[in-house]
Amino acid sequence: MPSADHDLGPQHLEDPARVVLRQPTDRSPEHAEPSRFIPHVQGLRAIAVMCVVLYHFWPGRFPGGYVGVDIFFVISGFLITSHLMRELTATGTVKLSQFWARRARRLLPASLLVLLFCAIVAGSAYLMPTSALPNEVREIIASTFYVENWYLALNSADYLNHSGDPTTVQHYWSLSLEEQFYVMWPLIMLLAAWIGLKWFHGARRRAVIAALAIVSAVSFVFCVWFTLTNPAPAYFVTFGRMWQFGVGALVALIPMLRIRNALGSFVLGWAGVAAIVFTLFRFDGQTPFPGYAAALPTLGAAAIIAASNSERWWYPTRVLSLRPAQFVGDISYSLYLWHWPLIIIAPSVPFWGLTIYHRLALLALCFVLAWLTKRFVEDPVRGWKVLTTRPARVTLWSALVAMLVVGGAAGTAWAVNAPAYNEGVRALQELRENPPECFGAALELDPGCEGVDFGDTILPAPGFAGVDRPSDEQCFVQLNDARPVSCEFGSDDADAPTVALIGDSHAFQLLSTFQRMADENGWRLVTYFKGACPWNTTPLSTPGAFGQACTQWRDAVRAQLADRDLDAVFTAAIATTPYSSAGFDSAHDAAVAGYREAWGEVLDRGIPVVTVIDNPVWETDPNKCLRTRDASECDGPRSALLVDDDPLRAAATDVEGVTLLDFTDVFCGADVCSPVVGGANVYRDQDHLTVTFADTLAPWYTEAIEGALARE
């Protein structure tokens, strides 16, 4: 994150786009006066980066650590606005090219170094699964040109949801947003200052304060609204975060907000620390964020900055000025850059694991790399005379060339591996069409396969399992989308039995398998899917727009089902869905009642229901282990991977018209669960089945549905 900037020399502003300096062109006005370094703000950086790092290393223990990014935004707003206002006051203008050049020299060297490292890793089939390559390359390029936040927003990424396959550069979303801030903020301040000079008797400072206050207020309102209506993109959208920079800016611009009174500073500073600690442990992935909840860590960070008295050693300003806090604050930018790629890559490194000792060793490595980067990359490049003694455009053009080189490296990674990727796609299609005899679940369920041994076979290969998923994404409704999207496949015959497949992503993972079953058996297949929203009438405990969208989707699906002529319904759901326990003794009881109520509406019409016990859920994608270790070393304890009491089991027990399938013993033995069964790679991520493996269960799905149709 950006460092403290320097003071500026005198000038006069006449037009926001005009720059007039009475200094040598090779020296920025920032050199006119000594730098102003604020130790406790640097210590606050340490708090911010450690919140993020601890959250990423141990999300269960520090569930709200993602607020560290919000703290960085406040710090940046405070420091950059202070810098710009000093220059604006002293010189009457801001030399934009020099400001942006300083930002480039400060931020790009370390940033592009890590991106180049990630591009090299992406090109290595040994460290990165081939299936992940296209998304890695796209996001590296988006991060290189600082639009990663928009890429994630437009692709509806859910930063607080730990499922899926995040790239090595996903954390660059915040850096992208900050760079956009560096572009927009001085322009806003220049325009406000020009308006103040032209129409308000030269009241430039008041005009700037008013403009930033208005921008911040509108941004906050937008943030709250957008978080409620579009929670996933709201996390990344630039304008929804501008108010956090604005809070820091107002602390910088309004002297009365900086508390120098001893008691006031003591209380305010420690209250800010308490607010951040509270969010670190009490916020989690279910907290509607950013929205109004982001006000707590934002104001907490602002309070710490505003606490300006440092007379006593027990004041937060003094504690945050201690050498350890200063050291972590100094390396915070590089530490932020390095820690996430290493976390993503580490599970794929031979002989590496996820024990506490491995995590601590990796954390130590992050600190070492951060210090080395600060010492040998950040500091030297910032002071390179070849850049600082030349016009700002030299720095800016050099930055563009460096960015193009990194983007080219990412493109090269794709070009080198594209043939292997395309071959993997073809091999996967062939495997689906012509699987081996007794492959996958058949080895465990077909008595005729007893004694068959697949040896070390793993199909699809662990490096390619990630793309072995249903292709009809248009049938899957995500996040806050409440539209009851329905897709139809299979027979067009008016007399064909109609089977509905309904549920969350654990139902969607069966789509390709059920399409093939429908084609082979002459059924018409009708689907309704929504992510993290099982077919159930009990509300989710998830607050905000997502929980509301789930309820709305269910109501809309129920209305459509009432008008459809169905012959059978198949449903599946992840067992760890968080249900509201309101009105029941437990969330489990509420879930059971909700399933039975949802099913009852079709059972009362004589339509049978088939459901299935959920598959195991792993802490991390087992393919990361399979790519570097023997399959036997990648087993997981049954007690940790299976939910003790899947509510689907209790809901289906003793209910007439409901057929319950249980493949638990296919996935797991008495004590452990395996990611490979009968030579088939079971998972494409930590909890979703590969289409290849789901296809091996097709005979038993078919048998259950045919049995239900016969009873209908």
What is the secondary structure topology, with strand pairs?
Blueprint: H1 39-57, H2 68-91, H3 96-122, H4 133-144, H5 148-154, H6 172-199, H7 204-229, H8 231-234, H9 242-253, H10 262-282, H11 295-306, H12 316-319, H13 323-330, H14 332-345, H15 356-382, H16 385-388, H17 392-433, H18 442-445, E1 476-477, E2 486-490, E3 498-503, H19 505-508, H20 511-521, E4 524-530, H21 544-562, E5 568-572, H22 587-603, E6 609-612, H23 623-626, E7 636-637, H24 638-641, H25 647-652, E8 658-661, H26 664-667, E9 672-673, E10 676-677, E11 680-681, H27 691-696, H28 698-711
Parallel strand pairs: 1-4, 3-4, 3-5, 5-6, 6-8
Antiparallel strand pairs: 2-4, 7-9, 10-11
Helix pairs in contact: 1-2, 1-13, 1-14, 2-6, 2-9, 2-11, 3-4, 3-14, 3-15, 3-17, 4-17, 5-6, 6-7, 7-9, 9-11, 10-11, 14-15
Please give a quick description of this structure.
The protein is mainly α and 712 residues long. It is built from 28 helices and eleven strands. It is 54% helix and 6% strand.
Task: Describe the protein's architecture and organization.
- With 712 residues, the protein is mostly helical.
- The protein folds into two domains: 39-348 and 355-415, no CATH class; 441-710, 3-Layer(aba) Sandwich (Rossmann fold).
- It is 54% helix and 6% strand.
- The protein is built from 28 helices and eleven strands.
- The strands form three sheets. Strands 1, 2, 3, 4, 5, 6 and 8 form a seven-stranded mixed sheet that branches. It has a two-stranded antiparallel sheet with strand order 7-9. The chain has a two-stranded antiparallel ribbon with strand order 10-11.
- Helix 22 links the parallel strand 5 and strand 6 (609-612).
- Helix 7 packs antiparallel against helix 9 (242-253) and helix 10 packs antiparallel against helix 11 (295-306).
- The chain starts with 38 loop residues before the first helix and ends with a helix.
- Keywords: Membrane, Transmembrane, Transmembrane helix.
- One of its GO terms (cellular component) is membrane.
- Residues 485-699 form the SGNH domain.
- The chain crosses the membrane at residues 64-86, 107-128, 182-200, 207-228, 234-255, 262-283, 289-307, 327-350, 356-373, 394-416.
- InterPro entries: Acyl_transf_3_dom, Acyltransferase_3, SGNH.
